[in-house]
Amino acid sequence: MKIRSEWIFDCEPRHVWPHFLHARMDTSRPLLFWFGIPKPVSCRVLEGTAAVGNTRQCTTDRGTINQRILQLEPDRLLQYQMRESTVWCRAWVGKLVDTFTLESLGDGRTRVRRTTEFEARGLLKMLRLVGLWAALRQAHAYAAKNWRRLAQDSVSEGIGTR
User: Fold this and answer.
1) CA 111/CA 159 separation, integer angstroms
2) Residues paired with 95 in a beta bridge
3) Confidence of residue 160 (pLDDT cuts 50, 70, 90)
4) pLDDT tens-digit readout, 65-122
5) Strands of 74-138, DSSP E
6) Residue 14 region by backbone torsions, left for phi larger than 0, else alpha for psi between -120 and 50, else beta
7) Residue 58 confidence (pLDDT) above 50
8) Torsion over CA: 112, 113, 117, 118 (sign)
9) Residue 162 scores a pLDDT above 50
10) What does the buried/exposed string (b/e) look like for 30-58 if buried means 16 or more CB atoms within 10 Å of the residue's CB?
11) In this predicted model, what pLDDT tens digit does every residue of 1-27 receive, in sequence order?
């Protein structure tokens, strides 16, 4: 199954890009997170430098998710796949691949597209698929809200200017 999201950010790709690899989310708690869905807290590259084959780790309020970077083109493309996790619902996930593309719109704005491909596994696979879909939709919206905030802070602070 796939989930696709698209957003327009009022800044250049260089202001958005770093936050896919290193970010701290806000303390808000949208509805589904109140029901035990893992809420993202932060992300970072464990090896310090983002590169194909390195590990992007997402820390949630329920554990960690380690993701192998599959494709990386700074300011343009990031793809990673979940490899291991300590969150309670890890047994539900057969496959989870996220792809982000950034497109400069030439007017100081950036189009960000996110595609998540996922499969459920185990007993009650269809029910789990629905649960994963709802959780991942919430995660898309929550992460985008935070990346927008972080990117705007970067613009305000002059970070990422060349």
Assistant:
1) 19
2) 119
3) low
4) 999 999 999 999 999 999 999 987 778 888 999 999 999 999 999 999 999 999 998 8
5) 77-85, 93-104, 110-120
6) alpha
7) yes
8) positive
9) no
10) eebbeeebbbbbebbbeeeebeeebbbeb
11) 999 999 999 999 999 999 999 999 888
Of the candidates 145, 158, 156, the residue with the CA atom closest to the CA atom of residue 25: 145
Pairing of β 93-104 and β 23-24: unpaired
Q: Tell me which residue has tokens 């291991």.
A: 84
Per-residue pLDDT, 159: 61
Kindly state the helix (H) or strand (E) to which residue 73 belongs, with its residue range: strand 63-73
Which CATH entry fits the domain spanning 2-157: 1.20.210.10, 3.40.50.300, 3.90.1150.10, 3.30.530.20? 3.30.530.20
* Non-local CB neighbours of 116 within 8 Å, separated by 6+ positions: 2, 3, 96, 97, 98, 99, 136, 140
Contact 59, 43 (CB under 8 A): yes
Question: Can you read off the two tokens belonging to residue 21?
Answer: 């690899």
Q: Coil, strand, or helix at residue 99?
A: strand
The pLDDT value recorded for residue 70 is: 98
